[in-house]
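Dock nicotinamide-adenine-dinucleotide; give full complex structure.
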Amino acid sequence: MTTETNKWHISNQRVFEYEIVSCSNLFDPQNETLLSLGKRENTRRFIIVDANVEKYYSTIIRDYFIIHNVDTKIVTFPGGEENKSLNSYISILNELDLFPIIRRDEPIIAIGGGVLTDLVGFVASSYRRGVPHIKIPTTLMGYVDASVGIKTGINFNGNKNRLGSFEPPLKVFLDKTFLKTLPKRHILNGVCEIIKLAVIKDMVLFEMLETHGLACIESMFQDEISESMLARSIEGMIEELEPNLFEDDLERKVDFGHTFSYGLETYPNSNLLHGEAVVIDIVISAILAKERNLLSEFELNRILNLIPNLGIIINCDFISSDLLWDSMKERVFHRNGHQRIPLPNGIGKCIFVNDVQRTELQYACNKLENWMEIHDPIREY
Ligand SMILES: NC(=O)c1ccc[n+]([C@@H]2O[C@H](COP(=O)([O-])OP(=O)(O)OC[C@H]3O[C@@H](n4cnc5c(N)ncnc54)[C@H](O)[C@@H]3O)[C@@H](O)[C@H]2O)c1
C-alpha cells in the first residue's frame, strides 16, 4: 500500500471556437477576409497549396499576397493518400522551420483537399506545440467533411490516420468555385460522404440526393440547389461533431460507412478513394440492417439504387468477408473494445450494434458481390 504524503489535482477547461464561412472570391484582391486573421502589417504567411490547385489557381493566389504586401513562402504539395505520410509531415516541418513565423499571429494557411488539410493540421498542432492554421478546402470531400471538424492526421505503418491530433483551426473558408476544376471522380468521392450522412441521419438530405443529386454533380456543385445541399450536409456534420469534438463518446453516427471501409482502403495497392471505400461499407451495412429488419426491402433498394443513379461506380476485386471482418476487428481497438457499428434504422435514423457475426457479414459480402456484378461498368457499357 502506498502512503500519500501530498496530492495535487490539476483541472483545466480550454474553451475554443472557430467559424466555418462559406464565401466566394476569397482571393479577389479587394477581399481582405483572409488577411483579417492575424497580424496585418509587415506580416508573413506560410502557405501550403495542393499541387493540382497550384496548377489552376497559382496566379490568383500568388498575386493576392503580393498585392497585399505579405511576405510569403508558398510550398506546393501533392495530394493523394500516398502523400499523407511521415515523410511529408517532416518535409513540411523542415520548410516551416526555414521560414520563421510569429508564433500566435501569423497563421499557416492550408489550401487543398482532405489529405493536405489533415497533414497541415497535424503540422500546425505539433510545431512549437501548436501554431494557428486556416483551412481552405478545395475538394468536395474537404468541403463537406474533412475541414469541418478538428481531426488532423497522417498515415503510419500502413494504417490510416494512425498519428494525429485534435486541433481546432483558426477559421475555415469554403469557396465552392474551387470545385469547378475537380475531376469528376473526386466530386463523386465527396458525394459518398453526403450519402453517408443522408442514410444515417437525414431523410430530407436523402430525398434531395434522389431528386437533385445528379444535377448538382453535373453542375460541379455550382448551381443553386447545390448550395442548399452543401449547407445541409455541413450543418448535419456540425450537429454530430460539435458536441463530441474530441470523440469522448465513441458511438458516432458519422462513423457510418467507416467500419469495413478501413480494410478496403488500407489493402495493399488499393486504388479506392476514401469515399469509394465508404460507399462499399454503406452497402454492406445496409444489407446487414435489412437482414436485421432495420430496413425494409424497399428502403434497402432505395439506398442501393441511389448509388449507381448518381453515377457512382463500385469496382473492387479484392473484397472478401475475411477482409471485412479483420477491418471490423481493427475498428474495435479504435472504438475501445466494442464494435459500435452504426446501422440505419430506417433511412435517416441510426442505431449502434455490437454483435455483428461472421456469418451475417459473409452473407452481406456475397450480396454485395452479386450487386457489384449487376452494376459492373464493363457489362453496362
Ligand atoms: N479530418 C477529417 O475529419 C477527415 C474527414 C474525411 C476525410 N478525411 C481525409 O481526407 C482525405 C481525402 O481527401 P480528398 O478526397 O480531398 O483527397 P486529396 O486531398 O488527395 O484530393 C484529391 C485530389 O484532388 C486534387 N485536387 C484538390 N483540389 C483540387 C481542385 N480544386 N481542382 C483540381 N484538383 C484538385 C488533389 O491534388 C488530389 O489529386 C483522406 O485522407 C481522409 O482520411 C479527413
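Observed: Residues 184-201 form the longest helix (18 residues).
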